[in-house]
């Protein structure tokens, strides 16, 4: 082979080798480029899968049938995570060697239910770990702290390092809200089951968790979010001062769901009952519609009580509360005179039906039934003067049913009234009322032409069945239903019509029928053998069905007279006064139901000490439920007149304003044409003035027509001569009324505005100043739904000082009355008794001297006894996470004082300090 041939052969070999190497390089480049679509901004950490998707070796064009080079497939890697990890940032995302991704500016990483937000987040894609921290500015203030949220549990930290595979992490300065409190720790380890293990942690209910006013310093703790906190030895720290209050461990349970559990009792020390535990028991979470709370008290001297309370609520149907209590109170020393044992009970039932449940049927209950001494011996009322001095209690249970098509309604009620002062009780069971609405029985269904006169006739019906008793509470269940209970039924049927005469007069004829049904009547006689002069006695009780009825007819005529006045003064205001006069005249007639033909009255004879025999007339039905018709026939003519004055004028803005000058000024008097003596009735006057939109002054009084006179025995009686015959106006018989008014910030501004003051303050308020509540912290919500407090900048005045606002309220109630004092001698010249003036005053108020301090009081004055009534003062101070209350009652029957500082959180209800007076001590302040 020549040299040229050898060179050519070598060239061919080199070219073949070059081609083979270049093909392999292109294939490798294609494989590398095919992996790029598998790596996205939303990284799954599944790099093996991405490489396998981009592999092209299986379809290599150079793989010949007899190729000796074997291409091995890439093994499928095991999935690193169960779900994709998504991440984002507001500023930038930087990828670096080693599989790191750095998120700057409000970074956010999500994996399954885990969410991590922070100013700076670093992710290691190979090890599936993240590290987050905040940024410290030049003022050493850290912003963008990491917030780690696993499910519904958020953690606020300084730094956090977390592994998505093991679900474990290391947290520094963690803050987690659990229930009403916060758990904080310098260093904590998060377990895979979301639990926290911490050392030197704190537990506090103060929302200022960075610098809390108090906390429990925990040596070691395990926190199970929304379940419990279990610690080792712990001690209390208040205002950064450790206190010698150490517990070997404590356990705080948390539950966001409805569950049962124990109710921890409260320690109590009482001089009359001894040492005791109160309000301890168990709470039963029966269902979403009903629960049960069982509590009890026990004292070392033998007193104890048991209380069961249940709440029920069926949505859109009904809701209510039922409470039953029984207590045994033992005071004093056994065997001595001061030893006292009282057994009392209480039943409270409140039931309300939803209006949407049944529009034609309602059932409600308001029961507050107690034994006579329950309120005075109950421990819960120890510092409640109002409950201890309460004299009356009322209870009622009612059911009503309407029948719209029949215009009929039925209402049944059971009522109980108790008098705590003398242990008397009045029970009405049942009290059934049947009412038929007004109907027009002669009205045509298809009216043609004008309305006939008989079509205006209307009729109504009202029936009442009642059964009642008045006795002592200890004799109630020993009474006889037939002998001791009063029962009866009453029917009222009025028939009336209204006609128009001469276009201006209204004529109203009417007829009324009333019938009573009784089961007993009591016959009476005079027994001269009783005492020195004898006494009226019941001789016989006749049981059966007895009818007592009466009827009457009347005819009324009324009209309205209008008059307009235009005063000569203030012509620019265009004042017009309208005077409306309403005169009425009515005539009524009633027969003498005292006649023997009716049988409603009977009589017996009585012999006096001087030998005279008197005939005494009585009614066997006098003490029955609905009484008895009156004696003597009557033919009354009733005169009534009413006046109304209104003024209409233009104000400064030329708007028409209307004012009521006299809402009503009226008088009425009657004359009985059938009476042989004293036919005139008393003169009644009434006045009503509408002084403001919220207050109306009412005055009504009666003036006796007939003057006093002396009978044959020298006693003062009402004579047969009128006061007019003596040249005197009617005798004033008395009047009583009450006035109540509330002074507060708003009413005071109105009063000052009347005197030309306070306008500047009002303009400032209208210009955009906030209300007094703006000085307080407004409540908001975090993103996780937990409450937070928003602080607003305090308001300032023109001089730069904070605006001073003091909400206050002062309520006065003044009652007064004038009546004849018949306990004194009559003036023989004027034939008048002296008048006595009775009055009483009560006052209550509250003032908020700052956002944290509040004072309230309740007092009054008894003018007859000339002493201050039961008085109480209350002082409260909001200490942020604590509250201070002080109550004092220096006047009245029950004197006491009480001072308490307690934690606001219900879970720390036993964390308190209390100083109070002892019960039954009747302390003396001076």
What's the arrangement of secondary structure elements?
Blueprint: H1 3-34, H2 47-53, E1 85-88, E2 92-96, E3 100-111, E4 114-124, E5 129-133, E6 135-136, E7 142-143, E8 147-150, E9 153-156, E10 159-163, E11 168-178, E12 181-190, E13 196-204, E14 214-224, E15 228-231, E16 234-238, E17 241-247, E18 251-253, E19 261-263, E20 266-270, E21 274-287, E22 290-299, E23 304-314, E24 318-331, E25 340-353, E26 361-370, H3 374-377, H4 385-388, E27 392-403, E28 408-419, E29 424-439, E30 458-472, E31 486-496, E32 499-501, E33 505-527, E34 535-558, E35 561-565, E36 576-590, E37 602-607, E38 613-618, E39 634-650, E40 656-672, E41 683-690, E42 696-704, E43 706-710, E44 716-722, E45 731-732, E46 734-744, H5 745-754, H6 759-766, E47 778-781, E48 787-790, E49 808-820, E50 835-847, E51 853-862, E52 867-868, E53 872-879, E54 882-889, E55 896-903, E56 912-916
Antiparallel strand pairs: 1-3, 2-3, 3-4, 4-5, 4-8, 5-10, 6-7, 8-9, 10-11, 11-12, 12-13, 13-14, 14-15, 14-16, 15-18, 16-17, 19-21, 20-21, 21-22, 22-23, 23-24, 24-25, 25-26, 26-27, 27-28, 28-29, 29-30, 30-31, 31-33, 32-33, 33-34, 34-36, 35-36, 36-39, 37-38, 39-40, 40-41, 41-42, 42-45, 43-44, ...
């Amino acid at each position: 082979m020549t040299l040229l041939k050898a060179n050519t052969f070598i060239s061919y070999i080199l070219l073949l080798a070059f081609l083979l190497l270049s093909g392999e390089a292109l294939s490798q480049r294609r494989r590398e480029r095919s992996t790029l679509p598998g790596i996205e901004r939303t990284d799954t950490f599944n790099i093996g899968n991405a490489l396998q998707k981009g592999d092209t070796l299986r379809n290599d064009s150079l793989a010949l049938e007899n190729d000796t080079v074997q291409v091995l497939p890439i093994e499928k890697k095991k999935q690193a995570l169960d779900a994709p990890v998504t991440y984002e940032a507001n500023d930038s995302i930087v990828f670096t060697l080693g599989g790191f991704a750095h998120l700057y500016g409000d970074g956010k990483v999500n994996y399954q239910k885990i969410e991590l937000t922070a100013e700076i987040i670093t992710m290691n894609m190979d090890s599936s770990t993240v590290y987050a921290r905040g940024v410290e500015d030049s003022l050493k203030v850290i912003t963008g702290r990491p917030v780690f949220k696993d499910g519904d549990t958020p953690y606020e930290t300084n730094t956090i390092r977390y592994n998505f595979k093991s679900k474990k992490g290391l947290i520094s300065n963690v803050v987690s809200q659990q229930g009403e409190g916060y758990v904080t720790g310098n260093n904590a380890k998060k377990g895979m089951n979301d639990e926290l293990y911490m050392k030197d942690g704190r537990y506090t209910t103060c929302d200022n968790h960075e610098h809390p006013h108090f906390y429990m310093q925990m040596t070691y703790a395990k926190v199970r979010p929304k379940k419990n906190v279990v610690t080792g030895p712990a001690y209390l720290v208040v205002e950064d001062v450790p206190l010698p209050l150490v517990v070997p461990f404590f356990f705080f349970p948390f539950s966001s769901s409805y569950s049962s559990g124990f109710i921890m009792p409260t320690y109590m020390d009482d001089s009359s009952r001894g040492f005791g535990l109160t309000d301890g028991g168990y709470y039963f979470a029966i269902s979403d519609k009903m629960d049960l709370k069982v509590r009890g008290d026990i004292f070392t001297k033998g007193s104890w009580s048991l209380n069961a309370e249940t709440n029920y609520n069926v949505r859109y149907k009904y809701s209510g509360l039922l409470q039953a209590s029984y207590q045994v109170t033992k005071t004093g020393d056994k065997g001595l005179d001061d030893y006292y044992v009282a057994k009392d009970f209480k039943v409270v039932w409140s039931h309300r039906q939803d209006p949407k449940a049944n529009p034609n049927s309602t059932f409600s209950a308001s029961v507050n039934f107690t034994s006579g001494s329950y309120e005075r011996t109950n421990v819960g009322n120890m510092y409640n003067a109002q409950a201890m001095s309460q004299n009356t209690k009322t209870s009622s249970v009612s059911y009503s049913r309407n029948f719209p098509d029949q215009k009929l309604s039925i209402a049944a009620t059971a009522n109980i009234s108790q008098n705590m002062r003398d242990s008397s009780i009045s029970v009405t069971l049942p009290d059934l009322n049947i009412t038929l609405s007004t109907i027009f029985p002669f009205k045509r269904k298809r009216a043609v032409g004008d309305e006939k006169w008989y079509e205006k006739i209307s009729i109504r019906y009202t029936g009442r069945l009642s059964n009642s008793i008045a006795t002592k509470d200890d004799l109630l269940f020993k009474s006889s239903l037939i002998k001791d209970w009063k029962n009866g039924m009453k029917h009222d049927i009025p028939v009336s019509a209204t006609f128009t005469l001469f276009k201006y007069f209204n004529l109203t004829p009417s007829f009324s029928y009333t019938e009573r049904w009784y089961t007993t009547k009591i016959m009476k006689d005079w027994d001269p053998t009783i005492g020195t002069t004898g006494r009226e006695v019941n001789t016989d009780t006749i049981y059966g069905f007895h009818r007592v009825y009466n009827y009457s007819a009347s005819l009324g005529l009324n009209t309205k007279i209008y008059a307009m006045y235009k005063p000569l003064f203030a012509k620019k205001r265009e004042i017009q006064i309208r005077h409306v006069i309403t005169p009425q005249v009515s005539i009524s007639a009633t027969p003498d139901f005292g006649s023997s033909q009716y049988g409603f009255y009977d009589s017996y004879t009585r012999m006096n000490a001087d030998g005279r025999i008197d005939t005494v007339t009585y009614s066997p039905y006098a003490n029955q439920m609905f009484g008895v018709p009156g004696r003597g026939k009557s033919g009354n003519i009733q005169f009534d007149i009413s006046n109304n004055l209104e003024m209409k004028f233009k104000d400064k803005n030329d708007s028409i304003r209307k004012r009521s000058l006299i809402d009503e000024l009226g008088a009425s008097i009657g004359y009985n044409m059938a009476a042989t003596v004293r036919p005139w009735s008393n003169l009644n006057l009434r006045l009503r003035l509408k002084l403001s939109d919220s207050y109306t002054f009412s005055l009504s009084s009666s003036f006796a027509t007939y003057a006093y006179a002396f009978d044959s025995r020298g006693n003062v009686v009402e004579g047969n001569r009128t006061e007019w015959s003596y040249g005197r106006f009617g005798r004033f018989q008395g009047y009583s009324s009450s006035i109540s008014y509330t002074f507060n910030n708003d009413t005071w501004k109105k009063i000052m505005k009347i005197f030309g003051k306070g306008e500047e303050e009002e303009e400032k308020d209208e210009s955009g100043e906030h209300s007094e509540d703006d000085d307080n912290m407004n409540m908001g919500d975090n993103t996780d739904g937990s409450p937070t407090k928003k602080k607003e900048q305090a308001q300032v005045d023109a001089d730069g000082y904070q605006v001073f606002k003091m909400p206050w309220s002062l309520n006065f109630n003044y009652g007064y009355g004038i009546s004849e004092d018949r306990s004194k001698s009559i003036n023989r010249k004027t034939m008048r008794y002296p008048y006595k003036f009775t009055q009483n005053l009560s006052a209550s108020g509250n003032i908020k001297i700052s956002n944290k301090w509040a004072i309230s009081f309740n007092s009054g004055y008894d003018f007859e006894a000339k002493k201050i009534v039961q008085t109480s003062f209350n002082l409260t101070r909001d200490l942020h996470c604590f509250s201070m209350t002080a109550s004092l009652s220096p006047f009245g029957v029950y004197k006491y004082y009480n001072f308490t500082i307690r934690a606001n959180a219900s879970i720390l209800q036993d964390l308190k300090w209390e100083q109070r007076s002892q019960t039954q001590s009747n302390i003396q302040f001076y």
